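Team,

Forwarding the record for the chain on the shared tracking sheet. I've put the sequence and predicted structure together so nobody has to dig through attachments.
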Amino acid sequence: MNTRHLRRVAVAVSAAALLPLALTACSGDSDTSSDAGADKAASSAPAKATESAATMDEPFGPGCASVPKEGAGSFKGMAQDPVATAASNNPALSTLVAAVKQAGLVDTLNSAENITVFAPTNDAFAKIPKADLDKLLANKAELTKVLTAHVVGEKLTPKQLEKGSFDTLAKTKLTTAGSGEEYTVNDSSKVVCGNVPTANATVYIVDTVLMPAA
Protein backbone atom coordinates (compact mmCIF):
# COMPACT_ATOMS: atom_id res chain seq x y z
CA MET A 1 0.00 0.00 0.00
CA ASN A 2 2.83 2.39 0.81
CA THR A 3 4.44 1.71 -2.57
CA ARG A 4 1.17 2.39 -4.43
CA HIS A 5 0.66 5.54 -2.43
CA LEU A 6 4.14 6.78 -3.30
CA ARG A 7 3.54 6.08 -6.99
CA ARG A 8 0.30 8.06 -6.95
CA VAL A 9 2.02 10.99 -5.26
CA ALA A 10 4.81 10.88 -7.84
CA VAL A 11 2.31 10.88 -10.72
CA ALA A 12 0.40 13.78 -9.16
CA VAL A 13 3.60 15.80 -8.69
CA SER A 14 4.66 15.15 -12.29
CA ALA A 15 1.24 16.23 -13.60
CA ALA A 16 1.35 19.37 -11.49
CA ALA A 17 4.79 20.19 -12.85
CA LEU A 18 3.71 19.69 -16.48
CA LEU A 19 0.44 21.63 -16.22
CA PRO A 20 1.98 25.15 -16.18
CA LEU A 21 4.12 24.20 -19.21
CA ALA A 22 1.03 23.03 -21.09
CA LEU A 23 -0.88 26.18 -20.18
CA THR A 24 2.05 28.36 -21.28
CA ALA A 25 2.20 26.57 -24.63
CA CYS A 26 -1.54 27.01 -25.18
CA SER A 27 -1.31 30.66 -24.22
CA GLY A 28 1.56 31.14 -26.67
CA ASP A 29 -0.44 29.56 -29.48
CA SER A 30 -3.41 31.78 -28.69
CA ASP A 31 -1.28 34.91 -28.62
CA THR A 32 0.34 33.94 -31.89
CA SER A 33 -3.07 33.39 -33.45
CA SER A 34 -4.33 36.73 -32.14
CA ASP A 35 -1.23 38.52 -33.36
CA ALA A 36 -1.63 36.93 -36.79
CA GLY A 37 -5.26 38.05 -36.94
CA ALA A 38 -4.32 41.58 -35.91
CA ASP A 39 -1.53 41.70 -38.48
CA LYS A 40 -3.94 40.48 -41.17
CA ALA A 41 -6.51 43.14 -40.25
CA ALA A 42 -3.83 45.83 -40.18
CA SER A 43 -2.48 44.80 -43.57
CA SER A 44 -5.94 44.84 -45.15
CA ALA A 45 -6.82 48.31 -43.82
CA PRO A 46 -4.35 50.25 -45.99
CA ALA A 47 -5.53 48.31 -49.02
CA LYS A 48 -9.13 49.39 -48.41
CA ALA A 49 -8.07 52.98 -47.84
CA THR A 50 -6.07 52.96 -51.06
CA GLU A 51 -9.02 51.49 -52.94
CA SER A 52 -11.32 54.24 -51.63
CA ALA A 53 -8.83 56.94 -52.55
CA ALA A 54 -8.48 55.51 -56.06
CA THR A 55 -12.25 55.50 -56.48
CA MET A 56 -12.49 59.17 -55.54
CA ASP A 57 -10.07 60.06 -58.32
CA GLU A 58 -12.25 58.47 -61.00
CA PRO A 59 -15.09 60.02 -63.04
CA PHE A 60 -18.49 59.67 -61.39
CA GLY A 61 -22.17 60.24 -62.08
CA PRO A 62 -24.99 58.69 -64.13
CA GLY A 63 -23.99 60.55 -67.29
CA CYS A 64 -20.64 58.77 -67.36
CA ALA A 65 -22.41 55.66 -68.69
CA SER A 66 -22.87 57.37 -72.07
CA VAL A 67 -19.15 58.05 -72.49
CA PRO A 68 -17.59 55.69 -75.08
CA LYS A 69 -15.64 52.81 -73.56
CA GLU A 70 -12.85 52.99 -76.12
CA GLY A 71 -11.30 55.42 -78.56
CA ALA A 72 -10.64 59.15 -78.48
CA GLY A 73 -13.98 59.89 -76.78
CA SER A 74 -13.39 57.48 -73.88
CA PHE A 75 -12.07 58.66 -70.53
CA LYS A 76 -8.64 57.30 -71.42
CA GLY A 77 -8.74 59.02 -74.80
CA MET A 78 -9.94 62.36 -73.40
CA ALA A 79 -7.12 62.33 -70.85
CA GLN A 80 -4.61 62.45 -73.70
CA ASP A 81 -6.01 65.60 -75.40
CA PRO A 82 -6.43 69.25 -74.34
CA VAL A 83 -9.94 70.08 -73.23
CA ALA A 84 -11.53 71.51 -76.41
CA THR A 85 -10.15 68.65 -78.49
CA ALA A 86 -11.22 66.11 -75.87
CA ALA A 87 -14.75 67.54 -75.82
CA SER A 88 -14.97 67.31 -79.61
CA ASN A 89 -14.57 63.54 -79.31
CA ASN A 90 -17.52 63.21 -76.90
CA PRO A 91 -20.85 62.94 -78.83
CA ALA A 92 -22.80 64.37 -75.88
CA LEU A 93 -20.89 67.66 -76.10
CA SER A 94 -21.22 68.43 -79.83
CA THR A 95 -23.35 71.56 -79.33
CA LEU A 96 -20.85 72.93 -76.81
CA VAL A 97 -17.99 72.24 -79.22
CA ALA A 98 -19.83 74.06 -82.03
CA ALA A 99 -20.37 77.04 -79.73
CA VAL A 100 -16.71 77.07 -78.68
CA LYS A 101 -15.67 77.10 -82.35
CA GLN A 102 -18.19 79.85 -83.12
CA ALA A 103 -16.72 81.99 -80.34
CA GLY A 104 -13.15 81.30 -81.46
CA LEU A 105 -12.20 79.81 -78.08
CA VAL A 106 -10.67 76.48 -79.19
CA ASP A 107 -7.07 77.66 -78.97
CA THR A 108 -7.74 79.61 -75.77
CA LEU A 109 -9.10 76.55 -73.97
CA ASN A 110 -6.56 74.12 -75.42
CA SER A 111 -3.59 76.29 -74.44
CA ALA A 112 -4.80 77.12 -70.91
CA GLU A 113 -3.18 75.28 -68.02
CA ASN A 114 -4.84 73.60 -65.05
CA ILE A 115 -8.41 74.78 -65.59
CA THR A 116 -11.84 73.36 -64.77
CA VAL A 117 -14.59 73.35 -67.39
CA PHE A 118 -18.25 72.87 -66.53
CA ALA A 119 -19.41 71.46 -69.86
CA PRO A 120 -23.13 71.58 -70.74
CA THR A 121 -24.49 68.59 -72.62
CA ASN A 122 -26.46 68.78 -75.86
CA ASP A 123 -29.62 68.32 -73.77
CA ALA A 124 -28.59 71.31 -71.64
CA PHE A 125 -28.45 73.55 -74.72
CA ALA A 126 -31.77 72.07 -75.89
CA LYS A 127 -33.43 73.57 -72.80
CA ILE A 128 -32.80 77.04 -74.25
CA PRO A 129 -35.57 78.14 -76.66
CA LYS A 130 -34.28 77.82 -80.22
CA ALA A 131 -34.75 81.50 -81.02
CA ASP A 132 -32.74 82.49 -77.95
CA LEU A 133 -30.01 79.96 -78.69
CA ASP A 134 -29.72 81.12 -82.31
CA LYS A 135 -29.47 84.72 -81.10
CA LEU A 136 -26.76 83.75 -78.62
CA LEU A 137 -24.73 81.85 -81.22
CA ALA A 138 -24.90 84.87 -83.54
CA ASN A 139 -23.54 87.27 -80.91
CA LYS A 140 -19.84 86.43 -80.50
CA ALA A 141 -19.23 88.74 -77.54
CA GLU A 142 -22.21 87.43 -75.59
CA LEU A 143 -21.43 83.82 -76.54
CA THR A 144 -17.85 84.26 -75.33
CA LYS A 145 -19.12 85.61 -72.01
CA VAL A 146 -21.49 82.67 -71.54
CA LEU A 147 -18.88 80.05 -72.42
CA THR A 148 -16.09 81.54 -70.28
CA ALA A 149 -18.57 81.69 -67.37
CA HIS A 150 -18.25 77.89 -67.41
CA VAL A 151 -14.47 77.95 -66.92
CA VAL A 152 -12.54 78.31 -63.64
CA GLY A 153 -8.81 79.04 -63.74
CA GLU A 154 -7.79 76.15 -61.49
CA LYS A 155 -8.36 72.41 -61.32
CA LEU A 156 -11.14 71.65 -58.86
CA THR A 157 -11.54 68.39 -56.98
CA PRO A 158 -14.93 66.99 -55.95
CA LYS A 159 -14.05 67.92 -52.36
CA GLN A 160 -13.74 71.58 -53.35
CA LEU A 161 -17.22 71.48 -54.89
CA GLU A 162 -18.90 70.60 -51.59
CA LYS A 163 -19.34 74.28 -50.72
CA GLY A 164 -17.41 76.34 -53.24
CA SER A 165 -17.32 79.81 -54.75
CA PHE A 166 -14.97 80.43 -57.67
CA ASP A 167 -14.08 83.19 -60.11
CA THR A 168 -14.61 82.32 -63.77
CA LEU A 169 -12.74 83.51 -66.85
CA ALA A 170 -15.77 85.71 -67.56
CA LYS A 171 -15.12 87.54 -64.25
CA THR A 172 -18.33 86.10 -62.82
CA LYS A 173 -18.90 84.00 -59.70
CA LEU A 174 -19.64 80.29 -59.91
CA THR A 175 -20.94 78.49 -56.84
CA THR A 176 -21.11 74.78 -56.13
CA ALA A 177 -22.66 72.58 -53.45
CA GLY A 178 -23.14 68.89 -52.72
CA SER A 179 -21.28 65.80 -51.61
CA GLY A 180 -20.45 62.27 -52.65
CA GLU A 181 -21.49 62.00 -56.29
CA GLU A 182 -24.21 64.66 -56.30
CA TYR A 183 -23.31 68.30 -56.94
CA THR A 184 -25.14 71.38 -58.21
CA VAL A 185 -23.65 74.44 -59.88
CA ASN A 186 -25.16 77.91 -59.42
CA ASP A 187 -28.12 76.25 -57.65
CA SER A 188 -29.59 75.15 -60.98
CA SER A 189 -27.30 72.87 -62.96
CA LYS A 190 -26.50 69.33 -61.87
CA VAL A 191 -23.23 67.51 -62.47
CA VAL A 192 -24.10 64.39 -64.47
CA CYS A 193 -20.54 63.17 -65.02
CA GLY A 194 -17.79 64.70 -62.93
CA ASN A 195 -14.05 64.63 -62.41
CA VAL A 196 -13.25 63.80 -66.04
CA PRO A 197 -9.54 64.38 -66.76
CA THR A 198 -8.14 65.91 -69.94
CA ALA A 199 -4.55 66.85 -70.69
CA ASN A 200 -4.94 70.38 -69.30
CA ALA A 201 -8.26 70.45 -67.47
CA THR A 202 -10.76 68.71 -65.25
CA VAL A 203 -14.26 68.53 -66.74
CA TYR A 204 -17.60 68.39 -64.95
CA ILE A 205 -20.39 67.67 -67.44
CA VAL A 206 -23.58 69.50 -66.42
CA ASP A 207 -27.23 69.34 -67.44
CA THR A 208 -28.01 73.07 -67.67
CA VAL A 209 -26.24 75.97 -69.37
CA LEU A 210 -24.92 78.49 -66.83
CA MET A 211 -26.20 81.91 -67.90
CA PRO A 212 -24.25 84.75 -66.24
CA ALA A 213 -26.22 87.59 -64.75
CA ALA A 214 -26.67 90.54 -67.07
